[in-house]
Structures are given as C-alpha cells and as structure tokens.
Amino acid sequence: MEKPKYSLDFEKPIHDLEEQLANLRKSSAESDIDVESEIQGIIEKLEVTKKRVHSALTPWQKVQLARHPARPYALDYIAANFDDFQELHGDRSYRDDRAIVGGPAFFDGSPVMIIGQQKGRSTKENLARNFGCPNPEGYRKALRLMKMAVKFNMPIVCLIDTPGAYPGIGAEERHVAEAIAVNIREMSAMPVPIVAIVIGEGGSGGALGIAVADKVLVMQNAYYSVISPEGCAAILWKDRVHAPRAAEALKITAERLIELKVADEIIEEPLGGAHVDPGAAALNLREALKRNLDPLKKLSEQQLLDGRYAKFRTMGDFEEKVIQSQAAAS
C-alpha cells in the first residue's frame, strides 16, 4: 500500500515539515548542493513534531484517525496475517452482504474462522460494501460461519470496523435488530475460543453483533462506542458540531475502554497511526492475536463459557460501585 499523505487538520505541522523535507531533497538532487545538515535538522524536527502531536491526541482526533481513508481494513489484515483464506458468501436466506467478509483460513499453522467488517477504498467499492455498514443478512452470514466454526472446532477471529449497522428501511424490514440480538445470544454460548479486534470504528450494535468474545482487543487509535460522537451530539445538544465534546464524554478511546473493562488489551500502532505503516500495524496485530488466542485454545468448553460470562458480567462494575458508595454516603 502506498504511504498516504496526511489529511487531518491536527497533522498539518507534520505535513508541512514533510513537504519541506521533500523539496529540500529535490533541490539538493537537482543542484548538487550539499544540504545534508539542513535535511538532518528537518528530520529531527519532524520526529519531535510527530511525537508531540500524537502523544496528546484528544478523543475526537483519535476518532478521525480511526476513520482515516488509508487505514488498513479487514481484508488488508487478513492478507497480511492469515494463510489460505477462502471467502464464503451469502446467508442462505436472502443475499450476500459485502460489508461483512468471512471464511476459513490458517493462522500460525492452525485453522481459524475469520470474520471482518469491510469498508471500501473508492466510491464504487464503498457503495458495494455499503460503507462498512452491515445489513441483517451480513450478521446472518457471520452467524452461519460461526456455526461452521463450532462444527469443526475452529477458533473464531472477528475484525471490527463499522460506524454501525445499516439503519435503512430495507434493513429494518428484514429485522436488523433481531439479527444482531441473535448473534449476541449465540456467540455468548459458542464452545470455541473467540477473539474480537477493533481495528477502526466500533459503532454501536453494528460492532457488537460480531464482538461477544473471550478477548476484546482494540487498536491504539480505534474507538468502540454505543453511538457515534455525531449521533450523541445530535441527541444531547441538537447539533453535530458538538461531536468533539461527545467523544470525550463517551469514553470511547482505547485507554478508557481498558479502564472500564470493555477491552482487554491495546494493540500498539506505528507513530502517526496504522495507515502510516500498515505492515508494522499488521505485525503488531498478529503478535497480539497469537498472545491472546493460544491460552484460550488450551481451555475446556466450560472454562471458555464461564470466563466469557464472567467477562461481560464484570463490565460496568466500577460505575455500579461508585453509585452504591454515593448512595450510602447520602
């Protein structure tokens, strides 16, 4: 994948320095003037600026990184980390939903069932993949593949990257909420290891429909939320302009997800985001997946189910204790 240009407002200082560096190198090559010291100075300043900008990102800025159009998508990670992936299509009831891809593959020499939410790069592909917003048949396809994984005793790996399930009339007519609810119920009782990884956007029930897992990992600049910041702002403040404020209130960043026990581990991204070095991001994801999947494969079915139940029962425990302590104090 070609390294993209920076396109986010808060990255403008980085983009300006990169342009200066490129122009200086071009001038040096054309005129044979030795400007190595100036080049080295800009390189050092560029590294300092990158660290300064990306070490103090706001939740809203991380949301923007999670949505970066050049960020690696599910199929990119599948190609980099899984062997012999065979994509399977259709829910056997209505049609194939290209917003969800899935099929068997090999990870580290062992078979797994990989399921991911997939966005498009071009306008044409985004229309074909519904901008990564699955319809009910997408969730039913995912469930079909999960049941196949259970039949053949294969671990399940889910790559989450969606702004949310598609809210259109057709999706509602075909019962998208019911499809997500069934997936949540069925995944909670599946006797095989399940690892879910939030690689970009993790929006609402659209993400949760394939995210009931023994381990939930989240990329450093990804987010996972009950609603998008824009949707939250439109409801609470009647104006989407308050999306940055909503992003802060929703506690959707990787660090906050760990604190709230919604996620289990943060997968580090290259400085600047996964889109800056997709190969390094894919390697980090591979290592994190192996680190979390291997211990799960050694557990019995009952241990898996008990651990999964306990994991989701623990979520919100901290907030509940705070409310209880406040009530006792009053």
TrEMBL record:
<dbReference type="InterPro" id="IPR011763">
    <property type="entry name" value="COA_CT_C"/>
</dbReference>
<dbReference type="GO" id="GO:0006633">
    <property type="term" value="P:fatty acid biosynthetic process"/>
</dbReference>
<dbReference type="InterPro" id="IPR029045">
    <property type="entry name" value="ClpP/crotonase-like_dom_sf"/>
</dbReference>
<comment type="function">
    <text>Component of the acetyl coenzyme A carboxylase (ACC) complex. First, biotin carboxylase catalyzes the carboxylation of biotin on its carrier protein (BCCP) and then the CO(2) group is transferred by the carboxyltransferase to acetyl-CoA to form malonyl-CoA.</text>
</comment>
<keyword id="KW-0444">Lipid biosynthesis</keyword>
<comment type="subunit">
    <text>Acetyl-CoA carboxylase is a heterohexamer composed of biotin carboxyl carrier protein (AccB), biotin carboxylase (AccC) and two subunits each of ACCase subunit alpha (AccA) and ACCase subunit beta (AccD).</text>
</comment>
<keyword id="KW-0067">ATP-binding</keyword>
<comment type="pathway">
    <text>Lipid metabolism; malonyl-CoA biosynthesis; malonyl-CoA from acetyl-CoA: step 1/1.</text>
</comment>
<keyword id="KW-0436">Ligase</keyword>
<dbReference type="GO" id="GO:0016743">
    <property type="term" value="F:carboxyl- or carbamoyltransferase activity"/>
</dbReference>
<dbReference type="GO" id="GO:0003989">
    <property type="term" value="F:acetyl-CoA carboxylase activity"/>
</dbReference>
<keyword id="KW-0808">Transferase</keyword>
<dbReference type="InterPro" id="IPR001095">
    <property type="entry name" value="Acetyl_CoA_COase_a_su"/>
</dbReference>
<keyword id="KW-0275">Fatty acid biosynthesis</keyword>
<dbReference type="GO" id="GO:0005524">
    <property type="term" value="F:ATP binding"/>
</dbReference>
<dbReference type="Pfam" id="PF03255">
    <property type="entry name" value="ACCA"/>
</dbReference>
<keyword id="KW-0443">Lipid metabolism</keyword>
<protein>
    <recommendedName>
        <fullName>Acetyl-coenzyme A carboxylase carboxyl transferase subunit alpha</fullName>
        <ecNumber>2.1.3.15</ecNumber>
    </recommendedName>
</protein>
<comment type="similarity">
    <text>Belongs to the AccA family.</text>
</comment>
<keyword id="KW-0963">Cytoplasm</keyword>
<feature type="domain" description="CoA carboxyltransferase C-terminal">
    <location>
        <begin position="34"/>
        <end position="295"/>
    </location>
</feature>
<keyword id="KW-0276">Fatty acid metabolism</keyword>
<dbReference type="GO" id="GO:0009317">
    <property type="term" value="C:acetyl-CoA carboxylase complex"/>
</dbReference>
<keyword id="KW-0547">Nucleotide-binding</keyword>
<dbReference type="GO" id="GO:2001295">
    <property type="term" value="P:malonyl-CoA biosynthetic process"/>
</dbReference>
